[in-house]
């Protein structure tokens, strides 16, 4: 009984090219920044989101491509540098778009360059966020407790104002917040305010709240 020899498959140029493309795609996929832990930007807390995107790209040595426009023809080693820019631009663009909400994705998907998307987002939301910060700072500065409400209830309002500032990236020292809380007590607490001012040992915010609850 004779055995037939099965011919080994012939690798054609097309197959080799396809395999090379697949390998390149897999390598690129492995190197893409993981944005799964970044909450999609939905027009709130832009600076926090922007910092996270910048940091994750910086880890991959790609942050510079957020602001780098295409090279002008005629520069040294133009072809290789352009090829490198094109690849890294695609990764940065993918990273930004992947971390946007669906509505914003639909708006910015039409832009093909990462630096364009980054610049447009920055111009729009840094200005809006600055206005939002001014609003919350004003609320905090003008807040003053009144006598016709329980002080402990108004301490909750004070905490909310502090949390609003934190959400805008404004972190105030705990000792400063303790002093502000004392100064914002209602007029009927003037004697307590004067006594607290003359204490030699500074009180923490928690200490002040405990003292206020005892006094009330």
Task: Map the helices and strands.
Layout: H1 13-31, H2 46-59, H3 78-98, H4 102-108, H5 114-142, H6 151-167, H7 174-183, H8 190-197, H9 205-215
Helix pairs in contact: 3-5, 5-6, 7-9
Outline:
Helices cover 63% and strands 0% of the residues. By secondary structure, the protein is mainly alpha-helical.
Give a structural overview:
The structure is a single chain. This protein is mainly α and 216 residues long. The protein folds into two domains: 40-126, no CATH class; 143-215. It is 63% helix and 0% strand. It is built from nine helices and no strands. The chain has helices at residues 13-31, 46-59, 78-98, 102-108, 114-142, 151-167, 174-183, 190-197, 205-215. It holds the Pfam family Retrotran_gag_2.
Question: Element order, helices and strands?
Answer: HHHHHHHHH
How many whole angstroms does the radius of gyration measure?
29 Å
Cα separation of the termini: 105 Å
Q: How many extended strands?
A: 0
SS-based class: mainly alpha
Number of helices: 9
Strand percentage lies at under 5%
Provide key terms for this protein.
216 residues, mainly alpha, 2 domains, 63% helix, elongated, disordered N terminus
């Amino acid at each position: 009984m004779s055995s037939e020899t099965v011919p080994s498959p012939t690798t054609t140029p097309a197959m080799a090219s396809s395999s090379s493309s697949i390998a390149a795609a897999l390598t690129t996929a492995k190197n893409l920044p993981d944005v799964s832990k970044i909450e999609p930007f939905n027009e709130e807390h832009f600076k926090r989101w922007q910092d996270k995107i910048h940091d994750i790209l910086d880890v991959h040595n790609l942050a510079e491509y957020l602001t780098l426009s295409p090279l002008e023809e005629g520069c040294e080693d133009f072809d290789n540098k352009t090829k490198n820019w094109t690849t890294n631009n695609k990764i940065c663009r993918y990273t930004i778009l992947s971390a946007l909400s669906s509505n914003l994705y639909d708006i910015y998907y039409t832009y093909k360059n990462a630096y364009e998307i980054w610049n447009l987002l920055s111009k729009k939301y840094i200005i809006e966020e600055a206005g939002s910060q001014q609003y919350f700072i004003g609320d905090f500065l003008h807040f003053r407790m009144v006598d016709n409400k329980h002080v402990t209830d108004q301490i909750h309002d004070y905490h909310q104002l502090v949390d609003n500032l934190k959400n805008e990236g404004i972190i105030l020292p705990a000792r400063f917040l303790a002093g502000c809380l004392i100064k914002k007590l209602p007029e009927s607490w003037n004697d307590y305010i004067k006594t607290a001012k003359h204490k030699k040992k500074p009180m923490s915010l928690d200490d002040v709240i405990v003292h206020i609850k005892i006094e009330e």
